[in-house]
Amino acid sequence: EKEGYEHFMIKEIYEQPGGIDKTLNRRLNKEGTIVLDGIKLTKEDLDKINKIYIVACGTAYHAGLVGKVAIEKYAKIPVICDVASEFRYRDPFIDENTLFIAISQSGETLDTLAALREAKRKGARILSVVNVVGSSVARESDDVFYTWAGPEIAVASTKAYTTQLTAMYMIALHMGLTKGTLSRERYDEIVAELKTMPDKAQKILDNYQIIQQLADEQFNNESVFFMGRGLDVEVAFEGSLKLKEISYINSFAIAAGELKHGTIALIEDGTLVIALATQNHLYDKMLSNIKEVKARGAYVVAVAKEGNEEVEKTADKVIYIPDTMDELTPILSVIPLQLFAYYVSVARGNDVDKPRNLAKSVTVE
Ligand code: M6R
């Protein structure tokens, strides 16, 4: 039930602090160590694994892109992230030293399931990150991590994504600590910061009016560009998908460094560009990219961390998220983009929870 909310999507957006909290805190023991009951990977197992494939579709794939960065950083294992519909026809290079990670909210997406079976046939160990308990993907996996997001009804995935991100960080941290590639000290710092995510996410939700107002100003656009660098690119992909699927606006996302290689040709007077600028180590580079599109007439809305106010000098509008480590920002920076997609869809009078041509669970090819 919608419990007083106008749509399931907005209800599910607001359930995110609780979902992240559950996914994380119920798996921390007294010492603050992550305990993954459904995952039996020992140090010996992990030392054998020389390659990881993360395979998923849509939003779950976007969570995988962030997971790749986290696993490579903490566990020092190379990761290939692929969309399931491509992976299964690619004849991927898999053997018994490969770990295959499937991410799926429903656990019933046909392409993801077929990819999993293909990886299994070739000898990979299968780990899945799934929301629906007992679903096909979960049943066919060796190890399972359940994102305790609760049922997700709206076609546009929101709380599944932020809990999938939380899951991927936890898996990456667990691997890094078990393998010894991540120090206990650093691990503790990141876990402590992860614990602040529910409150920080809530803070963004409490400020929803800023985004609602932006949506009311911008809902008539024909096209919207999302751009970022580093982890902001992965979030840009997700923000763009969210917007297009429920608003039907032609939106797309790009690594800001790629602008000059073609896309900047599309920027004209008044084009809306959403520029994610949350990565401290890439902040100056993003400011230059913002200047580039501004010089061609774009209207730029930046998403930045509190404390990084310099962007105000260049962007037309800035949406702030609470300060956090660069590597954890996706959990927070996606929330304004979800809210933006939601309010644009409402302003356009669309069927928010059941957008045209889409199904919640894609069980056909
Ligand atoms: O159930 P799954 O996580 O396997 O579904 C994958 C995609 O179909 C899904 O994320 C889709 O992209 C959503 N509509 C995005 O909001």
Automatic annotation (TrEMBL):
Positions annotated as active site in the UniProt record: K360
Membrane-spanning intervals of the chain: none
Cellular-component GO terms for this entry: cytosol
Source superkingdom: Bacteria
Cellular compartment(s): Cytoplasm
Keywords: Aminotransferase, Cytoplasm, Glutamine amidotransferase, Repeat, Transferase
GO BP terms in the entry: carbohydrate metabolic process; fructose 6-phosphate metabolic process; protein N-linked glycosylation; UDP-N-acetylglucosamine metabolic process
Catalytic activity: D-fructose 6-phosphate + L-glutamine = D-glucosamine 6-phosphate + L-glutamate
Primary location recorded for the protein, binned into one broad class: cytoplasm
Annotated SIS domain residues: 42-181, 210-355
Molecular functions per Gene Ontology: carbohydrate derivative binding; glutamine-fructose-6-phosphate transaminase (isomerizing) activity
Class of enzymatic activity (EC top level): transferase
EC number assigned by the record: 2.6.1.16
Quaternary structure (record): Homodimer.
Role played: Catalyzes the first step in hexosamine metabolism, converting fructose-6P into glucosamine-6P using glutamine as a nitrogen source.
Protein name per the record: Glutamine--fructose-6-phosphate aminotransferase [isomerizing]
